[in-house]
């Protein structure tokens, strides 16, 4: 395996702490206004192995106590990114970001983007349309917040476009560093889908996947870290899971603090950080194009059994034949 040179020299001065604790207790020991980025995905109260499902009101009450502490530790130029999906009760959908927005607003934070993180695969619903996105609410504490757009620009679709009038007529109209990535992110999940389609056991075959049921792609972390912090900033994940935020922060020379209540996940997080330091952690490179299956991929072909169902016209209309 070829090593990416970056992994060979994680700055030894960069600090990394992974605390096995309840985050409310652990946060009380963190100094006020010291963290430049809080990036997390809280438990969704949907009955995952690490949570006890309760009413949405009780769940949010508990979260608000933690949020008050998070706002306290956030620096004046700091940003907070809160990634959530839906809570579903008896088939009714409760979009968690709508509930959370009210809480953050009450605590004085200002929304900068509601980012839609879109993915192409997941459970198929039968009583509603299948869910294919989650959201990431990006708030800042003040109007003077860290935002390094140039660090996360993406290649522009039409770099050759020119100004067609005015004093710059005939000159390139775009930015040579690329375009703004917008508030709809199609990150990584597609590749996980591909792994899922082609290889039955994603856990052992996907470059990043661990035994955690809902881990972040490191690429998503990297975009937030690069845009919303400076070198030597502190990045905090109060629900750190297997340490994806910690890894993404360290990779870009930011100090990282992860808090996680399950020891087994902390152990995996430590192991991932060690592998990163040794240049052995498998990660999907940030700029790798998203895999699109072609009709030559077995997974994109119409199964023999379906071909006998006299649906030829339907498939032709939809471009499958
Ligand atoms: C949605 S997962 C986050 C996964 C993480 N983003 C990753 O990439 O691994 C939420 C995590 O929060 C942890 N957790 C839940 N309540 C907690 C609490 N009060 N304090 C600390 N960790 C908690 C859970 O054990 C779980 O690992």
Number of separate strands = 10
The share of residues in helices is: 25-40%
Kindly report how far apart the N and C termini lie: 39 Å
The whole-angstrom Rg is: 22 Å
Strand content: 15-25%
By CATH, the superfamily of the largest domain comes out as Vaccinia Virus protein VP39
Key terms for this structure?
321 residues, alpha/beta, Rossmann fold, 2 domains, eight-stranded mixed β-sheet, two-stranded antiparallel ribbon, 11 helices, 10 strands, 18% strand, globular, disordered N terminus, binds S-adenosylmethionine
List the helices and strands and how they pair.
Elements lengths: L4 H4 L7 E5 L2 H5 L7 E6 L15 H18 E11 L1 E4 L2 E4 H11 L3 E9 L14 E8 L43 E2 L3 H10 L3 H4 L12 H11 L5 E4 L6 H8 L3 E6 L2 H15 L26 H4 L4 H6 L4
Parallel strand pairs: 1-10, 2-3, 2-9, 6-8, 9-10
Antiparallel strand pairs: 3-7, 4-5, 6-7
Helix pairs in contact: 7-8, 8-9
Bound molecules: S-adenosylmethionine (SAM).
């Amino acid at each position: 395996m070829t090593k990416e040179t970056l992994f060979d020299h994680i700055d030894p001065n960069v600090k990394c702490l992974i605390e096995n604790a309840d985050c409310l207790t652990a946060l009380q020991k963190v100094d006020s206004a010291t963290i430049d980025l809080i990036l997390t995905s809280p438990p969704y109260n949907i009955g995952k192995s690490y949570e006890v499902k309760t009413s949405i009101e009780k769940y949010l009450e508990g979260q608000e106590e933690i949020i008050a502490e998070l706002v306290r530790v956030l620096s004046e130029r700091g940003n907070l990114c809160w990634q959530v999906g839906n809570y579903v009760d008896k088939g009714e959908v409760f979009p968690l970001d709508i509930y959370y927005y009210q809480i953050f607003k009450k605590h004085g934070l200002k929304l900068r983007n509601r980012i839609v993180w879109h993915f192409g695969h997941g459970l198929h619903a039968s009583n509603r349309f299948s869910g294919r996105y989650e959201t990431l609410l990006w708030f800042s504490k003040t109007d003077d917040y860290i935002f390094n757009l140039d660090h996360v620009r993406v290649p522009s679709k039409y770099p050759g476009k020119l100004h067609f009038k005015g004093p710059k007529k005939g000159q390139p109209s775009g930015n040579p560093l690329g375009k703004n990535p917008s508030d709809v992110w199609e990150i990584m999940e597609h590749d996980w889908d591909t792994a899922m389609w082609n290889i039955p056991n994603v856990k052992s075959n996907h470059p990043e996947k661990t035994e955690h049921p809902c881990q972040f792609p490191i690429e998503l972390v990297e975009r937030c870290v690069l845009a919303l912090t400076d070198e030597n900033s502190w990045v905090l994940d109060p629900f750190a899971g297997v340490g994806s935020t910690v890894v993404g922060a360290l990779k870009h020379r930011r100090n990282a603090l992860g808090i996680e209540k399950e020891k087994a996940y902390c152990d995996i997080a430590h192991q991932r950080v060690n592998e990163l330091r040794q240049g052995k952690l498998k990660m999907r490179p940030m700029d790798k194009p998203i895999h699109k299956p072609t009709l030559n991929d077995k997974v994109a072909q119409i199964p023999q059994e379906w071909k006998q169902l006299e649906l030829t016209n339907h498939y032709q209309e939809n471009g499958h034949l």
